[in-house]
Specification:
This protein is mostly helical and 596 residues long. Helices cover 61% and strands 6% of the residues.
């Protein structure tokens, strides 16, 4: 589904979403939203897209080079990834103005695979990174085609914050040596931090490089809020001109980018060895998760701003094709950019034509003027990456989480520490494991309650929250706030028996208020059968109220429904109580009757 609504056209959100879904193309056309955009293109948008594309180019070049170098790859690969990623997304991506390219959130992931396996060989590093992009692209295409576009929502906000903060810290530390004009060896954050400290103490700092890098960083931050001035371009051009005019590469030993290869790359499928397969597959999976999480959030944010709808599954396909194109044209993994997309939008971009113009302009630069940035200092490139890493850090919302839910705050900090200590790839695995544990915890040890009648309040309520609640003699109303499954079934049984033991009167019926129970598995059904035997031996009937029909159907398949009998299942809690009072001739005055 192509997002064609320009920002200047306000659209009522619900109507826009309904219209967007209803108008979605069918057949093979639905896989190419760019063609749909072309069919509906308005000529009034053309000058805006052309201008936005040229403005975007000023950011694409320095950022693409900076992230390539930071990822341990040849600088030119960042421009290749930018060109072909943008062109592919323009055809297959559903978002109106989203800009894809090399991104700071992927730097540590790529470096974590490339650095230990390439052994300093740039061509081998490029093949490894290219194959990561191919793997990531294929995974995204398959997942999007299978309508799995919402899978990344399994990661909670605190976990995403922790992961991204860990990535930001890792990237920042990895770029400090380049900012100070030297290089260090070592894997992992700890080794790099120690190596950086030792090099500084040993006097290896190049103060000219520090001055250039710090100046670049200062200009980027100073112009960050400006919507008219491209801070990154101004800072990078200023540093490049200073190196060229003052001949700092020779006179002060400042490391520079050097000449870029002229022309465009040939189609070349990246080849790796059998020993590389597992780490590359894991790296590609991590890239797919992170890049789609970033892309989907950014895409939905811009769609909401325009009052339109973006299909998350097509977004995943578009991202996948863009990564596949980047990988087979000597690039590396890419993602949506939270820094370059606003540049395109602020410059007036209406459609993905702006991205196409930007990609063609970068390609023209490589064909006509590949030596234009040969004096670009690596310290300035490090500054660009550091500025992006700092932008990834989330503090404000973590403070809010600390105030309202401290255990989730510490969960986020633990995830950040895991990424920083063990590495980005391992950190993704840790984040997923933590997310699964967090998801299961509420179901594993859920809340439960014995219910009573509260004067003046309709319904039946937790007696621990309402100490004055009245208990119906001989009846225990027990609520279980989770699905019943293998991990919590025994706890359910124990709490039920505890509730029976705690009753102040001999129990005749135990009614499970089962509205929150959304599922029952075989293990839980067997334990329910055992519980029924235990209660029956004590003269107690086990009953259920408000059990959902799909769950009841499962109990029928398990044989538990026929064992208990239909008379033990009640549509509402009130009907269960009425049946108990009538069957057992229990005198009971309801609060509604007392108020008359």
């Amino acid at each position: 589904m192509s997002d064609l609504t320009p920002p200047s056209a306000p659209v009522e959100p619900v109507r826009a979403v309904r219209a967007g879904r209803a108008g979605q193309a069918t057949g093979w056309m639905r896989w190419m939203p760019g063609l749909l955009a072309l069919r509906s293109y308005q000529m009034a948008w053309l000058r805006h897209d052309l201008l936005a594309g040229l403005v975007l180019t000023s950011v694409l070049v320095p950022v693409g080079i900076a992230y390539a170098v930071a990822s341990g790859l040849p600088a030119i690969s960042g421009l290749y990834a930018t060109i072909f990623g943008l062109l592919a997304y323009a055809l297959f991506g559903p978002s109106r103005v989203l800009v894809l390219g090399p991104d700071s959130s992927l730097v540590a992931l790529i470096l974590g695979v490339v650095l230990p396996l390439s052994a300093g060989d740039p061509q081998r590093a490029l093949a490894l990174a290219g194959m990561m992009a191919v793997v990531s692209g294929i995974l995204c295409i398959v997942a999007g085609s299978a309508r799995l576009g919402l899978v990344t929502e399994l990661l909670s906000k605190p976990i995403r914050y922790g992961y991204m903060n860990g990535i930001a810290l890792t990237v920042l530390i990895s770029q400090l040596p380049a900012l100070f004009g030297f290089s260090v060896k070592g894997d992992g954050l700890l080794h790099k931090t120690l190596g950086f400290g030792e090099a500084v103490l040993a006097g290896e700092t190049n103060w000219t490089a520090v001055l250039l890098g710090s100046g670049t960083l200062a200009v980027i931050f100073w112009l960050k809020r400006s919507k008219r001035l491209p801070g990154v371009l101004i800072a990078v051009v200023g540093a490049t001109v200073a190196v060229a005019v003052l001949n700092l590469a020779t006179r002060a030993g400042v490391s520079v980018l050097g000449s870029l290869p002229q022309g465009l790359p040939a189609l070349a499928f990246p080849l790796i060895t059998s020993n590389d397969i597992i780490p590359v597959l894991l790296g590609g999976l991590a890239v797919a998760l992170v890049s789609f999480a970033d892309t989907s959030v950014l895409s939905r944010a811009y769609a909401a701003r325009a009052g339109s709808f973006v299909d998350p599954n097509q977004e995943m396909v578009g991202l996948g094709v863009a990564n596949l194109a980047a990988g087979i044209f000597q690039g590396f993994p890419i993602s949506a950019s939270a820094s370059r997309t606003p540049v395109a939008e602020t410059a007036g971009a209406k459609t993905q034509l702006a991205g196409i113009v930007g990609a063609l302009a970068v390609a023209g630069l490589l064909m006509v003027a590949p030596d234009l940035l040969k004096n670009l200092p690596t310290a300035a490139l490090a500054a660009v990456v550091i500025a992006s890493a700092v932008a990834l850090i989330e503090i404000k919302d973590l403070r809010r989480i600390y105030r309202i839910q401290r255990w989730e705050f510490w969960l986020s900090i633990g995830c950040m520490a895991g990424v920083a200590v063990f590495g980005a790839i391992e950190g993704i695995g840790l984040a997923i494991a933590i997310a699964i544990i967090e998801f299961l915890w509420d179901g594993w040890r859920p809340h439960c309650a014995v219910l009573g009648r509260v004067d003046g309040v309709k319904g039946y309520h937790d007696i621990t929250r309402y100490p004055d609640a009245r208990i119906i003699p001989g009846l225990v109303l027990f609520r279980w706030d989770a699905p019943l499954f293998f991990a919590n079934a025994e706890l359910f049984r124990d709490h039920v028996l505890d509730a029976v033991s705690a009753s102040s009167t001999p129990v005749r019926w135990l009614v499970v208020s089962a509205e929150p129970v959304t599922s029952v598995d075989v293990t839980a059904a067997d334990i329910l059968e055992e519980l029924d035997d235990t209660l029956h031996a004590a003269g107690i009937d086990l009953c259920f109220a408000e059990l959902k029909d799909p769950v009841k159907d499962k109990l029928k398949r398990f044989g538990l429904f026929s064992r208990l009998g239909e008379q033990r299942f009640f549509p509402t809690l009130g009907q269960a109580v009425s049946s108990y009072l009538k069957t057992n001739q229990v005198p009971w005055v309801d609060w509604e009757d007392r108020s008359r």
